[in-house]
Amino acid sequence: MSVASLSLKQRLDGYERLVRLDKPIGILLLLWPTLMALWIVSRGSPTLTLVLVFTIGTIVMRCAGCAFNDWADMRYDAHVKRTASRPLAAGEIAPWEALAVAAGFALGGFLLVVLATNRATVLLSLVALAITVVYPFFKRFFAIPQAFLGIAFSFGIPMAFAAVLGYVSPFAWWLMVINLFWVVAYDTEYAMVDRDDDIRIGMRTSAITFGRYDVPAVAVCYGLYFAGMAWVGVRLSFGALYWAGFAIAVLIAIYHLWLIRTRDRMQCFRAFLHNHWLGFAMFVAVAADYGWRHHAWPRAV
């Protein structure tokens, strides 16, 4: 079926799938660490405006990133079982349409930041956009592109600090690095789903690079993430509610490791999808602890 022969309803459905609004997992994986950072930097009392800006901004920029990623990967997606039905790979949408959609969402996100935040956040949003544009091409040559994706999926953290403080503190950069290890963990699980196809078409992923040590590598990344979040808990003098949420998140990670232990494709994909509950648990841990204790802002931050 040609693009021209599709009905308006079919075209709209194709656009929805292009930007993954039918699969919100990517939005959630971006949103929870961003909101967690916003709660931390605002001492548990973020303004409704900033909550809305970062929630809507996350959705909009995720849509832009998906559309551009599919344009960049359109020659490869048709040869991968999981992505062959994507609208661009299946010929439901023309390449120029994907670029137009990506540009439209990116412009909307940028205007949102310009109108509702400050200069520091606006400058960081430009860096975030550049990272989004460059990432798809890292899969062609970089051995662990998931590490670069970790930067993209963690960049809401320094932006949240900039929106509240007008600058990015060293603590924010550390929080971003900590979150990067979680991203590498769950995106390696994701890459394990497509490993055979990626090897055949010449893609580079962490699952291929780690090889038979992929499961231990995921475990190490989870371990480094939780070691970092334990440091955050001690540094910010969090109490029992934080550590309860932290413990739940650790149990979730252990469950993921159990799922991927046999490297079964569907179990690896299941583990990846379940990661938003880990992020949600950590966000709730932070928000609940601030809400209960209302303790003073730590000078170290």
Structure description:
With 301 residues, the protein is mainly alpha-helical. It has one domain (10-293): Orthogonal Bundle (Tetracycline Repressor, domain 2), CATH 1.10.357.140. 75% of the residues lie in helices and 0% in strands. It has helices spanning 8-18, 25-41, 48-72, 74-77, 95-116, 119-138, 145-154, 156-165, 170-193, 195-201, 206-210, 214-235, 240-260, 265-293. α2 runs parallel beside α8 and α6 (119-138) runs antiparallel to α7.
> Could you please say which CATH topology applies here?
Tetracycline Repressor, domain 2
- What Rg, in angstroms, do the CA atoms define? 19 Å
CATH architecture: Orthogonal Bundle
- DSSP summary: helix tally: 14
Count of β-strands: 0
Beginning-to-end CA distance, first to last residue = 57 Å
Shape designation = globular
The CATH homology group name: UbiA prenyltransferase
In quaternary terms, these chains amount to single chain
Structural class: mainly alpha
- CATH class category label: Mainly Alpha
How many domains, in number, for the residues? 1
What is the H/E string? HHHHHHHHHHHHHH
Uncertain segments are 296-301
Please write out the topology.
Blueprint: H1 8-18, H2 25-41, H3 48-72, H4 74-77, H5 95-116, H6 119-138, H7 145-154, H8 156-165, H9 170-193, H10 195-201, H11 206-210, H12 214-235, H13 240-260, H14 265-293
Helix pairs in contact: 2-3, 2-8, 2-14, 3-5, 3-6, 5-6, 6-7, 6-8, 7-9, 9-12, 9-14, 12-13, 13-14
